[in-house]
Amino acid sequence: MTDCQGNGEGVKSPMELYETLTAQGDKVRTLKTAKAEKAEIEAAVQLLLKLKVDYKQMTGQDYKAGCPPSENCVAPDNGPAVDGADDEDTVDPWNVSTTNAKGVDYDKLIVRFGSSKIDQELVDRIEKVAGQRPHHFLRRGIFFSHRDMHQVLDAYEKKKSFYLYTGRGPSSEAMHVGHLIPFIFTKWLQDVFDIPLVIQLTDDEKYLWKDLTLEECNRFAVENAKDIIACGFDVNKTFIFSDLDYMGASPEFYRNVVKIQKHVTFNQVKGIFGFTDSDCIGKISFPAIQAAPSFSNSFPQIFGSRKDVQCLIPCAIDQDPYFRMTRDVAPRIGYPKPALLHSTFFPALQGAQTKMSASDANSSIFLTDTPKQIKNKINKHAFSGGKDTVEEHRKYGGNPDVDVSFMYLTFFLEDDEQLEKIRQDYASGALLTGELKKILIETLQPMIAQHQERRKQVTDEMVKQFMTPRPLNF
Fold it and tell me: Is residue 457 within 8 Å of residue 399, measured between CB atoms?
């Protein structure tokens, strides 16, 4: 996390942080022994994980129980570690990192977050209910985890509709291709289920977390809205809103924010999000704002006073902490829990250890890049799973599981048979790294050029239409 966060709750030295960590570990064990509520244990574990990250950042060493900070420390055998406390993957709404070249271990993440795997049975059921072949994001496990999707389908089969909610944090004027993933999939869901969609632009969040002015954040929201509209959403079924604009104009939305705030304690948000005593109060209250669109009566212009319309949220899994909190609060304020579909992360060009960053131009393919820039970035920066020499590669083959060009093709090459042939040819050595990169370049260049052309057609009047509170087809 960034901005005004410190290293812990008033911690001034490595020893004080070590002692705080030790006390938190004891608290987790006590809660588990006492069979405390799941939400309370999860909040305590999340805070423990955050403190461990802070400790390593401060000391350069991993925290080890019974071993105070020093240059040379050997940990004694203190028995099994706290469940999930030594997970090498860091996943939260602001940080995603792993030491594994293949990327985050999503099976472990499902266990850690307590969600459910999207298995073949669920993919087949979506196909049956939707009446269309599942999107390749579903077929290939790019959307891999869910909460309550079967419940959504049960209701839909009984002619009970639902609505979609997704969002974007507008931290820069230009979006990169990774930002398109939830919108591409959300558009497919909107089309096949014929349902309304709300898209939240969290310009308030970016003001709180980034070194940006309110005016810049609001301007970025409008610019990002143009890229989102260019994805092809139906204006009669889609409402895009900026928090800075909508919350002050919608008493119903703000009332839901306040209801959520009343039912979440400071200890809970510290545990879930890792907030500290040094964080500005805007950050601490923000999760309630991201939670509020999960409830249909936050949008009276669409749903009237109805509060029983279930919400389905397609998003990257790093956003799940917000909605675990939301699902915990929902029944206590008389609302249905939102359902979720989680996607994997879109890797940086340099490898799957991190997701793309809008602040590093060479880590990303931007939607504003020219064909030449796309070609140069992929050829120069895309991490290769190939061998060091052509001879070795022909003999031993490459590793598509760590090759960024192949990873990108799993997102954007729609033909399953062609993708599998590329995998086999690369793994056998028949396809060289340069040839694989060429396939990716030839896939991305026309896709981004077409997006740029569609964006040029988005006028200020169209943006205003999408962002004006109004009835939708429902």
Answer: no
